[in-house]
Write a structure and sequence with these properties.
heterodimer, A: mainly alpha, Rna Polymerase Sigma Factor, Chain: A, Arc Repressor Mutant, subunit A, 2 domains, two-stranded antiparallel sheet, 2 strands, 57% helix, B: alpha+beta, Jelly Rolls, Serine Threonine Protein Phosphatase 5, Tetratricopeptide repeat, 12-stranded mixed beta sheet, 45% helix
Chain lengths: 222, 414
Amino acid sequence: MYRAGGPERKMVLLSIVDNLPSRAPRVPFIGDDEALAIALKAGQPGAREALYDRYAPHVRRVIVRTLGTNADLQDHLHNVFIEAFSATSGIRDGSKLKAWLTSVTVYTAIAHIRRRVRRRWLVFAPPEELPPIPVPGLDEEKRQALTQVYEVLDRMPIRERMPFTLRVIDGMPLQEVADACEVSLATIKRRIDKARHRFMVMARNYPLLEELIEQEGRWRIE
Amino acid sequence: MSLSVFGKWVASVQDDVLDRRDRHVDDISAVRRELFDAAPARVRSGFRWMMPAVALVSAAAALVLVIYLVDTSGDAPATVSAPVASHFTPAANDWISVTEEAGRVVRFADQSTVALQQGANARVLSEKEHAVHFLLEQGSARVQVVHFSDTRWRMDVGPYKVNVIGTTFDISWDPDARFFQLSLIEGKVEVFGPMISDGRLISTKETFRSWVGEGRIEISSDDISNAVADDVRAVPEPFAKGSRTSSPVRRPVASPEVTGSSWADLNRQGRFTEVLAEAESRGLPETLAERSAGDLLALADAARLLAKWDIAFASYNALRDRFRGTGSAATAAYSMGRIYFDNRGDYASAARWLETYLRESGGVGTLQREALGRLVEACQKSGDTAGAQASARKYLVQYPGGPHAGIAASVLSN
């Protein structure tokens, strides 16, 4: 029912019940990644929930590696899946569903970093640049080291930062890093080499990082 | 440690942070509820036993509302009051002009509401499947949008476009003053428009203001104590132009421009030579006498990293003279200890400066562990056996698993 009219009425009611998503209980999805990819593309009930339940912890970990623990994890996790749900038509190989979702996560993180960089001219800092929320029981030195690592990363080119975080911090295999960044294996190797060198040079300005990396007494670039 | 080992260490610390966080916040479940559940999470999880009663009360309230609406809108034009089809799009002529003091509420069946204040002009531009496009031409409104994973809400307000997720916010546009304001009570929205063409996420308790004519915007973090009315028919307290700017307790937001010196920024980018060049162009004596502690530390560090030892020592000493007793002065002592240790092989001097750092930082400096570990080595290499053993004992008590634990143990065993 839709009611509207002149200014003398106090309420306007729009009824769009038929357009609302179904709230009926959904049957849990059962199947491997290839089946899940097909179900996602077909809009099968329960497929999105299955994707989330299967890979939300992985996505959260990739977010933490690429953006740091000071990032608003729930915001980013939410945004990655919103992005993924709207891009299921782009899944080419169902057996690589996890890799596809990783690339969506990386893409979303890159978009976030670019937005943040563009906003730096604003007088006020965006929330993610405010002091981090204290983590109970976490050693102060570790907290500072994490903050400084991402300060260095914030000053690196995104195309080097992303492979660096996935490879050096997360330990992801090179081919998976290349897939996530959507470049060739040779290109990703080159970028990681450059990123390693750049990180080492820039980290030298942070005594704590320098000490941590240098604990064996000398700088070493692998 | 090598960079790969360091990377693994960073990952392990991050995992530790996540473990600790998981004890307090369940990110995965919270986002899952946001993505897939329509009802507020706290009701669904904490008060499940109340659901039948809540449903009963809701049904009764809905019935009362429908009766009320039928009673108060009996003269609606037939073309508008007809039942809505599944793909009904309100016509562009369905203007809502609010003249009543109490305002008026546009209510959607998914429980989303737009409570328009007196003086507001608005209309629903389109309502397609899973998407609503609402225009607030002028005036103020409180918007409550219930989030569904596959519905989209967009509002056009003056020159701004607002992408709405699940959220509650106050929004207003004054076309005469060309003033736009959006105050987030709960959730988040993304705003696009003049001066933020790339979009800006506004989060809970943030207020975005734009003086479009002046080309000025402001984003502040406010404490908004206004409770959100549970009854969507209850129009919230008027929030006339300007009233919100005075009532909230303003909390200043840190500005990135004031967090560090420009030389420190250059250093972070690895542009050490530029720092030195700028200092020398201004005159080194003047620089050492006039610049801030942050600048002096940055200059000294740049010089140290470029192996310009004389400038580095001069800067560290100037810093210690002019800013005696500060954390920067203590850090300068540590850095000089490092130069003596790493670059000059003067371990006695290194030990003296490292002890100075440990004494001046009062046991709370971030370089305590490294300074104490290096002190063990410096004393050992300079032949100060007693000093080496004393610092080794101290090190093993404080950092039994630290990187210098092996050296400390060997000093004591010998």
